[in-house]
Design the sequence.
C-alpha cells in the first residue's frame, strides 16, 4: 500500500508539470496584458516597457515558466495587476469555492445517490421513468439558463432567497450549489441506477437473498457498497471540475470565489492569477484522484494494491 | 423597514467576511449605524494611487477621500477653486498656485505646497509606473523624468517650485490656458508624507483629505468608508458612511437592489432599463455625463485613408438610425450625438448642438449614394470591432450593423467583430491591426472641450487609436491651447472640431448618461457629470 | 489516474474520470466486459451477432425510434432550413424589438427585432455541425490514441495516461475562455477544434480500458498465436469488439457539446457573428429573461430537445448493446 501511494505520488509530478506548463503556454498565447492596463488609451511606451520588465513579460516563455515555478515552490505565487499578492486572492477565493463545492457534492451524494437507489430498485416503474426524464432535462438545459431562471424566480419573483451571495455562508450557497451540482447530480443518479440494476443480478446478491438476509441488509451491505464504486470515481474526479467550472455559477450569483478570480484574471490577461489558481486546482484534482483510488481498496476488497 | 435592516445586515456580514471585521462595528452597530449606505462597486484594476487610477471604480473612491486644488461642480461640471485660493498666470505658461489655510489630511498632517509638489513628482516619475503619468506631460521637465525611451535623467519635475508652505509655481513646456481647469482630476491630488514613508501600508489603506476616511478595505470584496468628522471642507458628508460592495456583474447588483439588499446601484445594465420605471419609479436617475461613444477608423489602412473614403464614412454615419437605437436599446440613457463633445460642457464650454449637421441625420437613401460615390465599403464588408467582455457593447454594435444593413439593403454588409478581452482589444488597436471601424468610447477626464478633441484626434495623441492626422486640426488645437481668452480658445477648438466633421474622422454615435437606482432609504441622490454618485450629499433614512 | 499499466482492474478504474465534459462516461463502465461476454456465443467467429441483436432490440424500442425521428428532422432542417423557414435569419428590424408573435413570426421577435422562429430554425445547422464534428473528432482521436495505448501498453501507455491526466486537469470552461478569446475566425472550426483538443482524453480512456479487456480474450490470444500482425489483430479482432462503449459515450457527449457551445457563447467566446446558432441566441436573450422570455425560451427549447434526443439515442444504444440489461 505504501509503495503504491509513493508510486502514485511520483506519477503526479509529470502531470503537475505538464498541466501547469500547458496553462502557462495558453495564457501566454493570449498576448500582451499591459495594453489593457491604461484604459481607453495607449500606455505611454516607457511605462509599458517598465511594467513588462517588472512582470517578467520581456523574458522568453520558458524562462518565465521556470522563474514562476521556482517561486511557486517558495510559496510566492506572484502579484496581480492591482498590486495584490495572488496568495492573498487565493485566501479569500478558495474558502468560498470550497464551501460551494461542498454544498454541490452534498447534493450529488444525498440527492443523486438516493434518487439513483430508488430508481435502480424500481426499474421500469413510473417513478423510474419520471426521474430519468427529469435528469435528462437537467442535463440538456445549459447551466447558465438554469441559474438565471432560478435567480429570477426564487430571488425576485417569489423572494425565497437572496438573488446574490454576499458573505458566502453555507445558507446562501444552497441554490448556487444546486445549480453547480445540477448536471453532475443527474449523472450520479443515472450512474447509481445503472450500477445498482446491474449488480442486483450478480451472484453474490442472489446468494445473499437466498441466505434469507433481510432485504434492507442486502441492499445496504452488499448491493450499495459494490454499486457505489463508479459513483465514487465520478464524484472524486468531479470535485476538481466543480471548483474550476464554477465560473458561470459564481458569475451569476455574485460569488467571489475561484471561478470569479479566474474569469477576471483571463479578462485582464493576468497570467500570474490564472496560472496560480490553475496550479492549485491541478493539485486538488490530483489529490482527489489519489483519494478515490485509495477508496477503491476500501469499497471493493477484490482490488488490492501491491 | 424591512429593506433597511436587510442592507445593514448585509454590510455587517460582508465585513465579517473581511476578516478584519472592523467595518462591522462602524456600519452595523452603534447609535448612528443606520445612516450608512451600501453601493455597488467593482474591484479597481490598479492600486489606489491617484496617478495610477484611470477607471471609474477606483475614481469613485478617490472622489470620496481626496480633494484637490479644483473641484468640478457636481451639478454643472464647472471647475471651482477648492484647496486653491488662487491660480494665476500672465502668459498661460507659468502659474502661481496659492493654497487655502486649514486643510489637513485625515491623519492630522497639514496639506502644504509640498504635499502637491511631491505627489506630482511621484506621479510623473517613470520609476513609479503610474499609468496616468502623462497628465504631468505639460509640466516642464517631464521628458527628463519620464523619457519615452532611454535613461531617466531626473527625479523631479524642473517646472515645479515650492515657494512657501502655501505657494508653489508651475511652469509648463508650452502655453496651455486651460491648465488650471484640469487640476480637478484625481491625478493632481495632494499626498501625505505617509504615502512616501510607508507606501505599502498606505496602499492597503489609503489616507487622503476628503470627506470620508477608509475604515476597512478588503480587496475583491468591499470597502467601508466612514464619514470624517473633522473634515475641514464645506462639503461634509451628510451620511455616516458608505460601504462599497464588489459585484461580479452589474445585473446582479441590480437584482440585489430590487431585493432590498443594496442601497445604490450606479450602472444599470441595458437589459434592465425597460423595467426601471416599474421597479424603481422615482428612485431612478438618468443624468447626462461627459461620455461620448464613437466609431473610429483605421487610417493606417490605405482603404480608409484614400481620398473619397470620407464620403463612405459620412454615408455610414447617415445609415445609422441613432434615435431608434438610443430609444430601443438604451431606453433614453443615451442621446443621439450631433457633435464630437458632450452637452455637459455647456454652450460656453464648447458644446455645439448640431455641429455635425446632416451627416449625423438618418437618411438611408443619401447614405447609399454617398457610399457608392466614395467607392463602396472597402473589402465589400464592414466589420465593427469591439470588446465583448463588458458593458452592452454587443447589443449596440449589432443594432448599428442591422441599421446599416437595412439602409444598404444587404444582410451581410456589416457584421460585429467581438474581441474576447479588453486587453486583447487594446493590443489589436495598439498593433494597428484593425481593418474596419472600431468602438471608441471616451469619458472625459476634465470638462474641457480640449479633452474631447486633443487626446483623440491630435497627431500621435495617446488615444488616437486610428492614427488620424491632419495638419490643420493640429494647428488649430495648438492655437486654441495658447489662447488666453477662454471664449476665443473655445471658438478655435470648435473650428478644429469642424475639421474632424469635414473628414468624418470618427462617427459620433451618442452621448452617454450616467444612470443609477436607489433604495427607499436614500434621498438627495445625484450623479456628477463623470457618472459617479455624489456620495457626500446622500441622506439615509 | 488511478490505474497502473497492465493492471486488469485498471480498466474498471480508468473510465469514470473527467471534468464537466465527461458526461455519461462513467455509465459506460458497465459495458466493458460485454463484447463477447454472453455464454455460448463464439465471439471470434461471429463478431456481428452483438450488433444484429442490438439492432433487433433498437427497432422495437420506442425511445430509440422517437429520438431517431427527432434527429432525422434536425438533420433535414440543418441541410435545408428554408424548407420550413423562408427568409433570412440576419434580417432584423429594431422597430420590432421584443415584439410578440406575428404572422410569419410565430415565436415573436428578439431584442434586435430578429425573427426568433427563423433564427431558431437556421440555428440548427451550426449547432448540429458543432455537435457532430466535435464528436467525430473526439471519437476518432480518442479511440486511436487510447486503443493503441491499451494494445501496446508499456511506455506508450504510461505516456498517454499522463497526457490524458494533464488535459483532464484543466477545467474545460477555463480552457475555452483562454483558447477561444483570441480567435477571430467566424467559422465553427475553432470551437470544434477546442472541443476535440480538450475532449479526446475522455474517449481515449474508455477506448483504452475497453481494448485492454478485449485483448485478454482467448480469440485474440489465438489470433496472435497463429501469427496475425498487430494491424490485423487491432482492426479485425479488437476494434469491432471494443468500439461499443466508445459509441455510447460519444452519442451522449454529442449532446453535451451542443450545450457547451451555448455556455461558451454566454461567456463571450463562442461562435461569432454572422454565424446563427442557438448558443448565440440564448446568450443574447438571457439578460432579457424578464421582458422577452420567448426569445430565450425557443432556442433553449430547441437546444434541450436536440441534446435530449442524442442522449436518449445513446441511452437506447447502450441498453441494446448490454446483454446483461436485457
Sequence:
Amino acid at each position: 500500500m505504501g509503495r503504491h501511494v509513493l508510486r502514485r505520488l511520483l506519477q503526479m509530478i509529470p502531470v503537475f508539470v505538464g498541466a501547469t506548463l500547458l496553462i502557462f503556454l495558453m495564457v501566454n498565447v493570449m498576448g500582451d496584458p499591459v495594453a489593457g492596463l491604461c484604459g481607453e488609451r495607449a500606455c505611454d511606451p516607457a511605462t509599458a516597457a517598465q511594467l513588462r520588465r517588472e512582470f517578467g513579460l520581456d523574458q522568453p516563455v520558458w524562462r518565465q515558466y521556470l522563474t514562476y515555478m521556482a517561486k511557486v515552490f517558495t510559496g510566492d505565487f506572484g502579484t496581480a495587476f492591482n498590486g495584490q499578492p495572488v496568495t492573498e486572492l487565493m485566501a479569500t477565493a478558495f474558502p468560498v469555492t470550497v464551501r460551494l463545492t461542498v454544498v454541490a457534492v452534498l447534493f450529488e451524494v444525498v440527492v443523486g445517490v438516493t434518487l439513483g437507489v430508488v430508481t435502480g430498485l424500481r426499474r421500469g416503474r413510473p417513478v423510474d421513468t419520471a426521474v430519468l426524464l427529469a435528469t435528462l432535462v437537467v442535463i440538456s438545459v445549459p447551466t447558465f439558463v438554469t441559474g438565471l431562471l432560478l435567480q429570477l424566480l426564487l430571488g425576485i419573483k417569489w423572494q425565497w432567497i437572496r438573488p446574490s451571495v454576499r458573505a458566502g455562508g453555507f445558507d446562501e450557497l444552497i441554490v448556487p450549489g444546486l445549480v453547480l451540482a445540477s448536471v453532475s447530480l443527474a449523472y450520479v443518479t443515472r450512474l447509481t441506477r445503472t450500477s445498482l440494476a446491474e449488480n442486483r443480478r450478480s451472484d453474490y446478491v442472489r446468494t445473499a437473498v437466498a441466505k434469507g438476509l433481510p432485504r434492507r441488509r442486502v441492499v445496504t451491505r452488499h448491493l450499495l457498497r459494490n454499486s457505489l464504486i463508479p459513483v465514487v470515481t465520478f464524484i472524486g474526479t468531479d470535485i476538481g471540475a466543480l471548483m474550476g467550472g464554477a465560473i458561470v455559477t459564481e458569475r451569476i450569483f455574485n460569488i467571489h470565489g475561484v471561478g470569479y478570480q479566474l474569469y477576471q484574471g483571463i479578462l485582464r490577461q493576468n497570467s500570474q492569477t490564472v496560472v496560480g489558481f490553475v496550479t492549485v486546482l491541478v493539485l486538488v484534482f490530483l489529490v482527489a484522484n489519489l483519494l478515490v483510488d485509495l477508496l477503491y481498496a476500501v469499497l471493493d476488497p477484490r482490488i488490492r494494491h501491491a | 423597514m424591512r429593506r433597511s435592516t436587510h442592507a445593514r445586515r448585509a454590510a455587517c456580514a460582508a465585513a465579517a467576511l473581511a476578516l478584519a471585521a472592523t467595518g462591522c462595528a462602524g456600519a452595523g452597530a452603534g447609535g448612528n449605524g443606520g445612516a450608512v449606505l451600501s453601493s455597488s462597486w467593482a474591484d479597481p484594476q490598479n492600486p489606489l494611487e491617484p496617478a495610477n487610477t484611470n477607471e471609474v471604480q477606483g475614481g469613485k473612491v478617490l472622489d470620496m477621500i481626496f480633494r484637490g486644488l479644483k473641484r468640478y461642480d457636481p451639478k454643472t461640471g464647472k471647475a471651482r477653486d477648492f484647496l486653491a485660493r488662487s491660480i494665476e498666470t500672465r502668459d498661460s505658461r507659468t502659474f502661481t498656485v496659492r493654497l487655502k489655510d486649514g486643510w489637513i489630511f485625515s491623519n492630522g498632517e497639514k496639506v502644504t505646497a509640498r504635499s502637491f509638489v511631491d505627489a506630482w513628482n511621484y506621479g510623473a516619475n517613470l520609476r513609479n509606473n503610474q499609468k496616468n503619468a502623462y497628465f504631468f506631460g505639460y509640466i516642464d521637465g517631464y521628458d527628463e523624468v519620464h523619457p519615452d525611451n532611454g535613461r531617466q535623467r531626473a527625479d523631479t519635475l524642473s517646472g515645479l517650485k515650492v515657494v512657501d508652505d502655501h505657494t508653489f509655481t508651475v511652469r509648463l513646456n508650452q502655453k496651455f490656458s486651460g491648465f488650471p481647469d484640469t487640476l480637478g482630476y484625481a491625478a493632481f491630488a495632494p499626498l501625505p508624507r505617509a504615502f512616501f514613508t510607508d507606501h505599502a501600508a498606505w496602499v492597503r489603506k489609503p489616507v487622503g483629505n476628503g470627506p470620508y476616511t477608509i475604515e476597512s478595505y478588503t480587496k475583491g470584496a468591499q470597502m467601508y468608508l466612514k464619514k470624517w468628522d473633522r473634515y475641514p471642507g464645506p462639503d461634509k458628508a451628510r451620511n455616516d458612511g458608505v460601504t462599497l460592495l464588489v459585484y461580479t456583474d452589474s445585473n446582479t447588483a441590480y437584482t440585489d437592489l430590487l431585493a432590498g439588499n443594496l442601497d445604490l446601484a450606479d450602472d444599470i445594465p441595458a437589459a434592465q432599463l425597460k423595467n426601471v420605471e416599474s421597479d424603481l419609479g422615482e428612485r431612478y436617475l438618468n443624468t447626462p455625463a461627459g461620455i461620448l461613444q464613437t466609431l473610429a477608423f483605421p487610417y493606417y489602412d490605405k482603404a480608409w485613408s484614400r481620398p473619397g473614403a470620407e464620403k463612405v464614412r459620412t454615408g455610414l454615419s447617415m445609415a445609422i438610425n441613432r434615435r431608434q437605437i438610443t430609444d430601443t436599446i438604451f431606453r433614453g440613457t443615451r442621446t443621439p450625438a450631433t457633435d464630437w463633445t458632450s452637452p455637459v460642457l455647456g454652450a460656453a464650454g464648447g458644446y455645439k448642438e448640431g455641429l455635425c449637421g446632416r451627416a449625423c441625420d438618418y437618411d438611408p437613401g443619401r447614405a447609399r449614394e454617398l457610399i457608392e460615390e466614395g467607392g463602396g465599403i472597402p473589402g465589400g464588408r464592414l466589420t465593427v470591432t469591439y470588446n465583448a467582455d463588458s458593458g452592452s457593447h454587443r447589443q449596440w454594435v449589432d443594432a448599428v450593423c442591422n441599421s446599416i444593413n437595412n439602409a444598404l439593403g444587404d444582410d451581410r454588409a456589416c457584421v460585429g467583430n467581438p474581441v474576447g478581452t479588453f486587453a486583447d482589444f487594446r493590443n489589436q488597436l495598439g498593433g494597428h491591426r484593425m481593418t474596419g471601424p472600431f468602438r471608441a468610447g471616451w469619458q472625459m477626464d476634465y470638462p474641457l472641450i480640449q479633452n474631447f478633441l486633443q487626446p483623440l484626434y491630435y497627431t500621435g495623441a495617446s488615444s488616437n487609436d486610428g492614427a488620424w492626422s491632419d495638419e490643420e486640426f493640429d494647428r488649430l488645437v495648438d492655437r486654441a491651447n495658447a489662447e488666453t481668452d477662454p471664449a476665443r480658445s473655445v471658438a478655435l477648438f470648435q473650428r478644429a472640431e469642424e475639421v474632424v466633421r469635414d473628414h468624418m474622422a470618427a462617427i459620433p454615435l451618442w452621448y452617454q448618461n450616467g444612470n443609477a437606482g436607489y433604495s427607499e432609504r436614500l434621498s438627495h441622490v445625484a450623479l456628477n457629470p463623470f457618472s459617479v454618485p455624489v456620495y457626500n450629499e446622500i441622506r439615509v433614512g | 489516474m488511478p490505474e497502473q499499466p497492465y493492471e486488469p482492474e485498471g480498466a474498471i478504474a480508468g473510465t469514470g474520470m473527467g471534468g464537466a465534459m465527461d458526461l455519461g462516461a462513467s455509465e459506460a463502465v458497465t459495458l466493458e466486459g460485454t463484447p463477447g461476454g454472453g455464454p455460448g456465443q463464439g465471439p471470434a467467429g461471429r463478431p456481428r451477432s452483438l450488433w444484429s441483436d442490438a439492432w433487433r432490440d433498437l427497432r422495437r424500442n420506442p425511445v430509440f425510434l422517437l429520438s431517431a425521428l427527432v434527429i432525422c428532422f434536425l438533420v433535414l432542417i440543418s441541410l435545408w432550413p428554408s424548407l420550413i423557414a423562408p427568409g433570412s435569419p440576419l434580417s432584423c428590424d429594431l422597430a420590432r424589438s421584443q415584439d410578440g408573435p406575428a404572422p410569419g413570426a410565430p415565436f415573436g421577435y428578439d431584442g434586435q427585432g430578429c425573427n426568433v422562429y427563423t433564427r431558431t430554425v437556421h440555428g440548427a445547422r451550426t449547432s448540429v455541425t458543432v455537435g457532430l464534428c466535435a464528436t467525430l473528432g473526439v471519437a476518432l482521436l480518442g479511440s486511436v490514441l487510447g486503443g493503441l495505448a491499451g494494445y501496446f501498453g508499456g511506455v506508450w501507455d504510461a505516456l498517454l495516461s499522463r497526457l490524458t491526466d494533464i488535459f483532464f486537469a484543466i477545467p474545460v470552461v477555463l480552457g475555452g475562455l483562454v483558447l477561444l478569446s483570441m480567435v477571430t475566425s467566424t467559422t465553427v472550426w475553432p470551437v470544434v477544434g477546442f472541443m476535440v483538443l480538450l475532449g479526446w482524453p475522455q474517449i481515449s480512456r474508455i477506448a483504452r480500458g475497453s481494448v485492454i479487456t478485449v485483448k485478454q480474450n482467448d480469440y485474440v490470444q489465438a489470433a496472435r498465436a497463429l501469427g496475425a500482425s498487430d494491424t490485423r489483430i487491432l482492426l479485425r479482432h479488437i476494434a469491432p469488439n471494443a468500439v461499443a462503449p466508445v459509441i455510447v459515450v460519444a452519442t451522449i457527449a454529442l449532446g453535451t457539446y451542443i450545450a457547451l457551445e451555448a455556455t461558451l457563447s454566454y461567456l463571450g467566446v463562442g461562435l461569432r457573428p454572422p454565424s446563427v446558432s442557438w448558443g448565440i441566441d440564448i446568450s443574447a436573450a438571457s439578460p432579457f429573461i424578464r421582458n422577452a422570455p420567448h426569445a430565450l425560451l425557443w432556442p433553449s427549447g430547441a437546444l434541450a430537445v436536440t441534446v435530449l434526443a442524442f442522449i436518449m439515442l445513446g441511452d437506447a444504444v447502450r441498453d441494446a448493446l448490454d446483454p446483461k440489461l436485457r
Q: What stands out?
A: The CA atoms of residues 430 and 465 of chain B lie 7 Å apart. Chain B touches chain A through 59 residues (CB under 8 Å). DSSP finds 20 helices and 19 strands in chain B.
